[in-house]
Specification:
The structure is a homodimer. With about 290 residues, chain A is of the alpha/beta class. Chain A has two domains: about 90 residues, Rossmann fold; about 140 residues, Rossmann fold. Helices cover about 45% and strands about 15% of the residues of chain A. Chain A is built from eleven helices and eleven strands. In chain A, the strands form three sheets. Chain A has a six-stranded parallel sheet with strand order 1-11-8-7-5-6, with helices on both faces. In chain A, strands 3-2-4 form a three-stranded parallel sheet, with helices on both faces. In chain A, strands 9-10 form a two-stranded antiparallel sheet. In chain A, α7 packs across α8. The radius of gyration of chain A is 19 Å and the shape is globular. The interface between A and B is large, with 36 and 36 residues.
């Protein structure tokens, strides 16, 4: 087993983002701004937000945190979003999910100005991404793309893992990970299999996959019940809090004697996700200021 | 081999659409209107447009045809679209593809008011569809969905083919068919494999598929080189004009002694696609008139 070190790759990308932001500041006097919104006081969400704010500081993005009551109505959240939409210091708006009332989610996301939608979950951005055909077009059009799948693509690219013609098995079909990842993988000419809780023949699918992405949120989900080829690349998106600490969706005891490459938890996909938030904020800033790269 | 008769299923759905339109007319005095736009004089496109106009007549949709010069600029096409956007007699706008200049395509589609986008190719509609999770939500939200994949879903539903947990192999990743079909299949809990010209192991994938959708536009593409399980359902989306007449992407000689179900060409997916255009026009009419079904 070989480890794909997400922390190290993220560090490289962050250093690049930091340099770009400094250069823009030197020329224009402007700095990208990211607004974060936390509704309520979920402990895990607070930790995520804190690490996002810290990452902003590291690269020179100004962050504006908004913590509002867990009882906030949908209207109250949307009012806050509208204020942030019209604030010119703010280039990106991140609404921390899940909301205490999940039925508010899509309406609140829809209220975010698509040019400030750094999570890439507004229908306009989601649709634009889905309609683009090649990776080159996606990069050229500067579309805002959900951070975790974008981070996975960069992780693979930095690790020199070619995707064209490869069979990529994505386990999980969420809007945040599985669905946009399928589109991104297709754009790099991978054959894409999307499996999920209703899939009955997952053991047959793992056997033919060149790359397996596990995003189900269940510790030890990918275990000895599933055969894996030699040289398979495994991307573990799970972040599960157990009594023994943080772990992913892959059973490391099963994997560790196999001839595969894998992202660890922590230190794999997580740092890449946060880094892509910084990258999207910079992208939004560039788009809004019509800066030519 | 058993034939899935698309013509017959389309007839049932059209009869239902016709009744609904008559009822709405009796109550409101209004009729749905569909504008078709043909740029240039491509023969195949003319045939498609004619059959769409004829289908509109059959169910009581008023059609407004616009044929403009093959040299029309992007601005000229968009001006026409804007006129149709503001015409209250028109509920749906269909821009016949391909355009003589393909680089105009997405900009012209983006100019269509999303509520009149009966092809479901505007980023807003594409994004909305992609973000919805279950088939029930998709139906409830009245999203406009590309006609061919929507027709395939109805074809399977009318043929009592359950999709939950099934392995669906989609060959082809176009914006019109493969990509939205993957989303629709996921919404009905299928495991989805998207393959295409860069896929190297298609012979392994056909063997594990319960449903195979072929949308590549190559006669006899699915042939004896590919093993197919007993009871596989094959949906042939190809419409290829050869010296021997119209044919699909499946080699019928190979398939005809197998224990499978298949849609023929012509008479399979084609009639369903046109029927879904009628259904989308009715849906757009209902959405625009805020009629409660």
């Amino acid at each position: 087993m070989k480890i794909i070190n997400g922390r190290q790759i993220a560090k490289h990308i962050k250093s690049d983002i930091k340099t770009k932001i400094k250069n823009f500041k030197d020329i224009t006097g402007k700095t990208p701004g990211l607004a974060t919104i936390l509704v309520g006081s979920n402990v895990a969400s607070k930790i995520y937000i804190q690490s996002k704010i810290k990452a902003c500081q590291e690269v020179g993005i100004q962050s504006f945190h908004n913590n509002i009551s867990t009882q906030s109505s949908q209207d109250a959240i949307i009012r806050l979003i509208n204020d942030l939409n019209s604030n010119t210091l703010i280039n990106g708006i991140l609404l921390q999910l899940p909301l205490p009332d999940k039925t508010f989610t899509q309406n609140c996301i829809n209220a975010i100005n698509p040019v400030k939608d750094v999570d890439g979950l507004h229908p306009v951005n989601y649709g634009k991404l889905s309609l683009l055909k090649s990776w080159n077009d996606i990069i050229k059009e500067n579309v805002l793309i959900p951070c975790t799948p974008l981070g996975i693509m960069h992780l693979l690219q930095y690790s020199n893992i070619q995707l064209s013609g490869k069979t990529v098995l994505i386990i999980g079909r969420s809007n945040l990970v599985g669905k946009p990842l399928a589109i991104l993988m297709l754009s790099q000419n991978a054959t894409v299999i999307t499996a999920h809780s209703k899939t009955y023949n997952l053991d047959k699918l793992t056997k033919i996959a060149d790359v397996i992405i596990v995003a189900v949120g269940i510790p030890n989900f990918l275990n000895k019940n599933y055969n894996i080829k030699d040289n398979t690349v495994i991307i573990d998106v799970g972040i599960n809090r157990t009594v023994d600490g943080l772990c992913g969706d892959v059973d490391f005891n099963y994997i560790q004697n196999k001839n595969v490459r894998i992202t660890p938890v922590p230190g794999g996909v997580g740092p890449m996700t946060i880094t892509m938030l910084l990258s999207n904020t910079l992208k939004a800033f560039i788009n809004q200021n019509k800066i030519n790269l």
